[in-house]
């Protein structure tokens, strides 16, 4: 993998981490501000948070593998 490809993958990991944090923040806001009335929102927000974290974990594992050589 070239240096430029590594840099691009690193940028992707950072972007996915930010997206994961944004979803986690929405989940936190739901718990803090809208429960119990907003309980129907839990499945969608939780799934989106999980998916975003999984995407980050996958990209982060690819980056770690690429950095090892």
Average pLDDT figure: 97
Poorly predicted residue ranges: none
CATH topology, anyone? Helix Hairpins
Number of domains: 1
How far apart are the termini? 8 Å
Sum up the overall morphology in one term: elongated
What is the CATH architecture assignment? Orthogonal Bundle
Order of helices and strands: HH
Topology diagram in text:
Layout: H1 3-34, H2 42-68
Helix pairs in contact: 1-2
What does this structure look like?
The chain has 69 residues and is mostly helical. The protein has a single domain (3-68), classed as Orthogonal Bundle (Helix Hairpins). Helices cover 86% and strands 0% of the residues. Helix 1 runs antiparallel to helix 2 (42-68). The longest helix has 32 residues, at 3-34. The N and C termini lie close together (8 Å).
How would you briefly describe this protein structure?
By secondary structure, the chain is mainly alpha-helical.
Features:
86% helix, 0% strand, 69 residues, mainly alpha, Helix Hairpins, single chain
């Amino acid at each position: 993998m070239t240096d430029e490809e590594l840099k691009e993958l690193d940028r992707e990991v950072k972007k996915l981490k930010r997206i994961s944090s944004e979803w986690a923040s929405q989940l936190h806001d739901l718990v803090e501000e809208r429960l119990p009335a907003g309980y129907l929102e839990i499945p969608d927000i939780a799934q989106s948070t999980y998916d975003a974290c999984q995407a980050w974990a996958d990209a982060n594992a690819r980056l770690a593998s690429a950095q090892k050589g």
